[in-house]
Amino acid sequence: MILIILALGDTLKASEDTVKVEVKIEKVKIIPEVKKVNGLGKDLIVETYKRPKYYRPYKLLIGPTGQVLEGGTFWFYGGAFFGNWTEFGIGQGVFTIGLADLMEVKLSLERLLSNLSAGGTSSGAMAMKIKFLDLKNFKGAVELKINPISFQSMTDTLILYNPDPVYYEFTRQYNTRGVTAFVPLTFYWDKYSFAVGASLAQFGINIKSSQLPDTSNCYAGIYCDSLKSALKSPSFYDSKKEEILNFYGGYAGLIYLWKENTELIFEVNALPRILYRTRYKSDTTEPYKYMLSNRYDNNTYALTVLSFLGLRYSFNRSISAEAGIVIPYDMSLPPENRLSLLNSILYANLNVVFSLKDLGL
Questions:
Q1: pLDDT 10s digits, 283-337
Q2: What is the mean pLDDT of residues 192-198?
Q3: Distance CA 142, CA 130 (A)
Q4: Quick one: the chain helix, strand, coil %, rounded to 5?
Q5: Which end of the chain has fewer beta carbons closer than 10 Å to its terminal beta carbon, N or C?
Q6: pLDDT tens figures, 104-115
């Protein structure tokens, strides 16, 4: 923005990216950063607002950066993952507003950055990012994201032999809530932006209800003893209280300004994948997968590392699109399946960013 003191005598015309002014003056003095038009006397003070050519979203592909939106700036984005392994979806959309050049608030329907189990319901989430470091080439912030209770119903099958196999289906409903804290830092150098972030995710898990096999008509015999014994194993215990899981993760990424309207993005992100009790330790389709020895006895998590390679293309000042390839390394799978081309994911996202200043407000 520019302060121009105008008086009678000359004519000044602002460029197309500023507020257009045409006044005859006798002298001109340019002073930076003035926000209003003041005075109609001998000197006339006029503000001009130079808009950025492109609004660039303050994130990698999913990890936040250390910058925050300017006050009065609005940002909406929504996208999806496409592939067989889609438990980190963010397809419902996120709305963000910048406040006072210091804070941004996000409202979203995205899942927490974690698998909350396939078939679960995704509820709204809220996040707040506050800037604590604002140097010319180095930015830092703290972000806190709260995900309310999400519900997951899981169906499992218990196999008992009498002596032939007898199949019992049962369901479990889990209530899961979570809070994630990020500390993103970003360093800017020439056409490069280097972003790193540490994260702490805390999950609370509770079993709301269970519909287990009925044993009321089973009184004696090897089969009945096996059934009752199985249902008393740790895999079938109901939660007496909320179980707390803590996960320490992080991410790192690089943004390269390839062209004026195109950024190349590389990101590596370590995320938790929740493994509920009674979930299978193996992805095999063989019948023995249902045996108790192949289930998790307690709620836990597995490390999953997502590697992103993509780009962000700006169509105009306010609209940009992102696309990329995601390769997951999933520690919950058997070693031979953890890194597989079959697990590859395609990512797509659309950003819309604008400022109230663009509307003259």
A1: 555 544 455 566 677 788 888 898 999 999 999 999 999 999 989 898 888 888 8
A2: 96
A3: 5
A4: 10, 55, 35
A5: C
A6: 999 876 544 333
Looking at residue 131, its pLDDT comes to 95
Q: Which range, of 185-194, 196-205, 332-341, averages the lowest pLDDT?
A: 332-341
Q: Which residue, chain included where needed, has tokens 């995710």?
A: 201
pLDDT of residue 287: 47
Neighbour tally for 41: CB within 10 Å: 7
Helices within 136-275 (DSSP H only)? 222-231
Burial class (CB in 10 A: 0-12, 13-18, 19+), 294: middle
DSSP per residue over 282-300, as a string? ----SGGGGSGGGB-SS-E
* pTM score of the predicted model: 0.74
Rounded distance between C-alpha atoms, residue 270 and residue 286, angstroms: 30
Q: Which long-range contacts (CB under 8 A, 24 or more apart) does 221-225 make?
A: 222/162, 223/160, 223/162, 223/166
Cα–Cα dist 28/4, whole Å: 6
Tokens of 123: 């509820």
Written as one string, the DSSP assignment of 120-145 is: -----EEEEEEEEEE-SSEEEEEEEE
Q: Are 33 and 48 in contact (CB under 8 A)?
A: no
* C-alpha closest to that of 278 among 176, 121, 166, 154: 154
| Rounded Cα distance, 60 and 186, in Å | 10
Distance CA 90, CA 82 (A): 11
| DSSP-derived 3-state class of residue 83 | coil
For the record, the structure tokens of 282 come out as 């193996």
142 neighbors 166 (Cβ within 8 angstroms)? no
Cα radius of gyration (the chain) = 28
14 neighbors 3 (Cβ within 8 angstroms): no
Q: Are the beta carbons of 9 and 42 closer than 8 angstroms?
A: no
Q: What are the pLDDT digits (tens) for 40-57?
A: 444 555 555 567 889 989
Task: Report d(CA 198, CA 99) in Å as an integer.
Answer: 24
Q: How far is it, in rounded angstroms, from Cα 14 to Cα 51?
A: 13
